[in-house]
Amino acid sequence: xxxxxxxxxxxxxxxxxxxxxxxxxxxxxxxxxxxxxxxxxxxxxxxxxxxxxxxxxxxxxxxxxxxxxxxxxxxxxxxxxxxxxxxxxxxxxxxxxxxxxxxxxxxxxxxxxxxxxxxxxxxxxxxxxxxxxxxxxxxxxxxxxxxxxxxxxxxxxxxxxxxxxxxxxxxxxxxxxxxxxxxxxxxxxxxxxxxxxxxxxxxxxxxxxxxxxxxxxxxxxxxxxxxxxxxxxxxxxxxxxxxxxxxxxxxxxxxxxxxxxxxxxxxxxxxxxxxxxxxxxxxxxxxxxxxxxxxxxxxxxxxxxxxxxxxxxxxxxxxxxxxxxxxxxxxxxxxxxxxxxxxxxxxxxxxxxxxxxxxxxxxxxxxxxxxxxxxxxxxxxxxxxxxxxxxxxxxxxxxxxxxxxxxxxxxxxxxxxxxxxxxxxxxxxxxxxxxxxxxxxxxxxxxxxxxxxxxxxxxxxxxxxxxxxxxxxxxxxxxxxxxxxxxxxxxxxxxxxxxxxxxxxxxxxxxxxxxxxxxxxxxxxxxxxxxxxxxxxxxxxxxxxxxxxxxxxxxxxxxxxxxxxxxxxxxxxxxxxxxxxxxxxxxxxxxxxxxxxxxxxxxxxxxxxxxxxxxxxxxxxxxxxxxxxxxxxxxxxxxxxxxxxxxxxxxxxxxxxxxxxxxxxxxxxxxxxxxxxxxxxxxxxxxxxxxxxxxxxxxxxxxxxxxxxxxxxxxxxxxxxxxxxxxxxxxxxxxxxxxxxxxxxxxxxxxxxxxxxxxxxxxxxxxxxxxxxxxxxxxxxxxxxxxxxxxxxxxxxxxxxxxxxxxxxxxxxxxxxxxxxxxxxxxxxxxxxxxxxxxxxxxxxxxxxxxxxxxxxxxxxxxxxxxxxxxxxxxxxxxxxxxxxxxxxxxxxxxxxxxxxxxxxxxxxxxxxxxxxxxxxxxxxxxxxxxxxxxxxxxxxxxxxxxxxxxxxxxxxxxxxxxxxxxxxxxxxxxxxx
Length: 978
Known about the structure:
Distance between the termini: 81 Å
Domain RNB: 476-808
Radius of gyration: 32 Å
Helix content: 25-40%
Family: Belongs to the RNR ribonuclease family.
Pfam families: OB_Dis3, PIN_4, RNB, Rrp44_CSD1, Rrp44_S1
Protein name: Exosome complex exonuclease RRP44
Cofactor: Mg(2+); Mn(2+)
């Protein structure tokens, strides 16, 4: 049966376009129920009488139909293995897909779980359930009517099926169909039409066998709260916001909450380089970190300056009205900030207030329950692990069980009469402090996809046993006889690059970089490809790896292990003895790595002159050429930067850190890096020439001059002049920053330089001008990522472009779509940033575990001088920490003091701290005592206390035994304790 669907669409020019589409209806779509005698069922029954749910509201067998709002709001309830025999209408499924891709994905996983008995009924193509849109009817009203029609049809259809004498004689009660909706209008119409209906909350409360399911209910408001006094200004309506943005009375941007001050944040707006400052609870107006908000700029006379005050919210409970103490605290904070701004008017920044929310970016949050002062209450305060997130009010009946547990909570709403947002409990992660639990928190808080790969994803993997066929050999260049080897960190199993170098008859060298051909196994558009694109990158935690692709590929079929034939994508150059590229070529190949080595093993082979194997010769040639390439890059203005990096030795059973040390860099590290850089630049030039509009590239913007201020000032007071005009002069300046009495000084200068840099990002060539392609850190006019497709999806995209350009693979529509590739790049930039943050958090966690129960005195250097602290670097461990100089609030006279009344004076001009005759500059040597402060169970921190130089009343008092240096004695004492 054919019908016509008509709808209108407004074009970019403002014209109204009428669209007519054919819509086919059928009479052979099955209902999916084992009670039905009429429908043709082409698969196993999904709606069965095996899973009957006991409900005090509906005391008879029943199926459920879900309204769209129930799926969107109550997905955490639906994910519990409680509800069965659920009819999912395609009308609802399409609405969910349109409104929330993340919930759609979660809902789809439930539907595909055959044990849950969720049946998708194609009501939009069934002749008895299709609802045409009436004139003047909104799309939402039409969808609501379609849902009611389908529910009514199901109820009548099943009644007819159960009206036979055989069924009556069986003594079974009739199965009915119940609509769950939280839409008051839809519910009223359903009741008027004789449909059984209930809200999600009513239905869940009626399930007497599952009382804890109530904890997972999404709450739009808590009981007895509607009459509470407003604590925040009302948000503008979306219509008002859009009008304000159009008239440029309002500005739009992403809100970033302060980690140090819960009453401060900023909104990133394109037209303001440093964003718009937001201060005070009312001006923050219920914005949560990440939300897209509308901001009203305050008059310039009311602009303020960012606060340097660290202000944490004290233990408070779900009071409806803020206490006088809290109100006074907020006023006091704002007064101090305004006084600071008045004293330094040049530092005033554009300040505003949030007047509306454009789009919420709420997610699930990890944290702990705060112990309640009220006995036998279900209402509790949840404290997120992320300091930028406000506390959340939840209702739970298992508070006693959840104490000292890490739990997950999500926000449902934030009414203006509630001090905190309101949410609900999702699940418990495990005991606080447990290694597995804390790793899970890191992954969740940094939005790292880490669930197991689905069956659908795994179905696109090659079937084992897998082997290279004669057809494969015919399509590829055979390089199995070459002396190819790989050089990687110890324990590396996802080996995605290998190299070779051999001398040619003309005296030149053939150098090859061979990269795992992951794109051969991951075809565009399938579930495996979509999952890899969503993950974006492999995430490395201490002792744990979250793969971008399944292990069969990452550690087996794609990994270029020694002695095994593998598919590769090869970039091969002919270079002369001065490393000048004479010729280049790309081809898909078959290789057989002769050896997989660690950096240390390769270095030993290079340094041992008695080793004359082909692999040893190849490595020596590569190492010599790499030094020439590196010098050439440096001469062009490339920067050699540094960052403190830690390597942990982890217990194989407990996964706890046994030893920690700074990572060692060898010549072989640099050797591999140089040829990977050369391959990336060579490929970037090629794909940008072939695909001028859609090449995937990577750029590193030049930092604004103000970014370098801390570096320039710190170097100046050490007697060095750092010029930041260009990358080349900066590089030369850094080379000159050398102190004979402090071999670590140059490394610290480079670490400080790294902090001044901008983030490197992926982009599409057609979106920027060629001069903006520049990679500042590498001094390369053009750059991309080609060399790590096992762990970066960007490299898979580049492989596909390169393969298409040389005829090794076919093109496809999305490969050349600029817009879709730009969206992919945005996701990759986000995923890479989160992966970096997660890795740092993992290092922090393991550092805390290593120092638990220990105290050690170590030599370090002042990296930064802050207003109330010194940032100290410990070279032995490659870690940083903060040595706080001011531990009490300002005195009445405004002077900041430590608890011992030792006074430190901060000089803003030369960035120094003075206490008596002791002056601290950046890069000064210090001795500090390291210990772990576990007083805050959720936020343990490594404490730095000064040992040397000695300041009476502030430094740690050491033993009077002068023959035993504090460092050695502390370590000996620690060993005795252990």
